[in-house]
Amino acid sequence: MRTMYDAVTAANIPRDAQMVAGYIDRIVLAPWTAADWARFPNAIHVTIVKKPTTNDGHVLDVEPGDATPAQAPGWVRMRRDSGADPTVYCDLATWGSVRAAFRNQGVAEPHYWIAHYDGDPSWSAGWAESGVVAKQFRGNVPPGVDISSVADHWPGVDSNGGELVATSQEIDAIAQATVSALMSRTVGTGEPETKTQLPFSTMVRYTQFDASKINGVLTRLDALGAKVAGATAEEIAAALLPGLAAAVAAELAQEPGINDEDAQRIAQAVTDRTAALLGASAPPAAGQ
Question: What pairs with residue 19 in β-bridges?
Answer without folding.
Answer: 4, 44
